Here is the input.
Amino acid sequence: MEKQLTGTLALAVFTAALGSLQMGYSLGVINAPQKVIERHYARSLGVYSEDLARSEGGNGTEHEEPTDPSVVMYWSLSVAIFSVGGMLSSFLVSFVGDFRGRIKGMLAINVLAITAGLLMGLAKMGTPHLMVIAGRAIMGLYCGLSSGLVPLYIGEISPVKYRGAMGALHQLAIVIGILISQVIGLDFLLGNDYMWHVLLGLSGAPAILQSLLLLVCPESPRYLYIKQGKVEDACKSLKRLKGDYDTSKDIAEMKAEKEEAMKEAKMSILRLLRSSVYRQQLFVALMMHLSQQFSGINAIFYYSTSIFQTAGVGQPVYATIGVGVINIIFTLVSVVMVDRAGRRTLTLVGLGGMCCCAVAMTVGLAFQDAYSWMSYLSMAAIFMFVSFFEIGPGPIPWFIVAEIFSQGPRPAAIALAGFCNWTCNFIVAMFFPYLESLCGSYVFIVFAVLLFGFTLFIYFRVPETKGKTFEEIAAVFHRKHGGAPPSKPQEEAEMVQLKGSSEA
Here is the structure.
């Protein structure tokens, strides 16, 4: 009798999700101690003025912005270099996962996380700005790989009945990680002059626990059977994950999947870009990821403390923690709703709501000097902005790519989508402070315009994928974009050509 949910399965999913938790922690940890780290950068660079030191002796609010442009540059780089690491490593997910397996892949990349944690944890003893930037870059390399390997492993070991809920644990662990970093980043805990390096160094702590637990986790049965052809090992792994039961049904399903995969060409990224068969799907996948990052959400995550300060909040870090709590609540809402309301509907509601919130945020920030109550409007808009993001635009782009591509082009499509996501993340992180200084309180109007454009795109160009097969989705794409589906011989001819070139 198949038990479906076992202690081993729960341990394996929890262990993998520690990688997502670490990613969330790394995303959020740089936010709260911004002013403290900037002061250490200024001291290290020799631009720490006596006037600033005297102002800190007062209430600490006289000096809101660092005086030296080099401090601003190094701070922006500390935030943005994380995304550069993710961009570079996102292409390697398939290679790392297939080379020695999912478990050994996750074990190997933990070396990066621990190295990054040590660099940042020891930053106070060396050159702070260089050690933090190096640590953030290496942590970015880790997170780019982890953001692909974790959902891959969880998806492959989860029973079909629970695959959706377990797949959503990746996003849930990320937002929990963000909240943990915000709480322990409070100035009376670790976000102060004495402990900020420990706060950053803890980024690598989950990797140590995960490395120990991975030693007792079973390898993915799908990897063992489909990639390595080890039937006996796959059966043992299935029994460890699901209990002592007849594995013949699962083995037959994997056999069919393997046979189907062998019929399709495994496309490289360049071949996918050239293929006319998948062009519309690829355009939609990339636009979904563009809409996620250029919505302005990471501007909120990375710079929420300073935004709340501008909005006139007395204790901005507590408001930032409130954003983290809202994040978790609405991620759970999305888990419940996504298979009921549908992907397209939730994305439209999310992007449209975020557009309205961006306008409200701008109004609140622009008129807060004239009307004191406007700061409450800004705060409410930020909370609602995050809520709408987690309902649809946050989680959906990550798994819709797998839904609209079949086995052959899927790895290349996921790599392209991941690269697009991390690149946009870098652009926002690097240039938002400059955009903010240029536009002032009207900065979120830029995001409102982008959100309006993305909402129109989703409405006119993206079909609903809930409950549809790959063939049905492909047919919908061709109908929606004004052309008949390619004839079967034409599509097969292109696939044979692609397969031949890939074998060559």
In short: Confidence is low (pLDDT under 50) at residues 54-66, 484-491, 495-504.
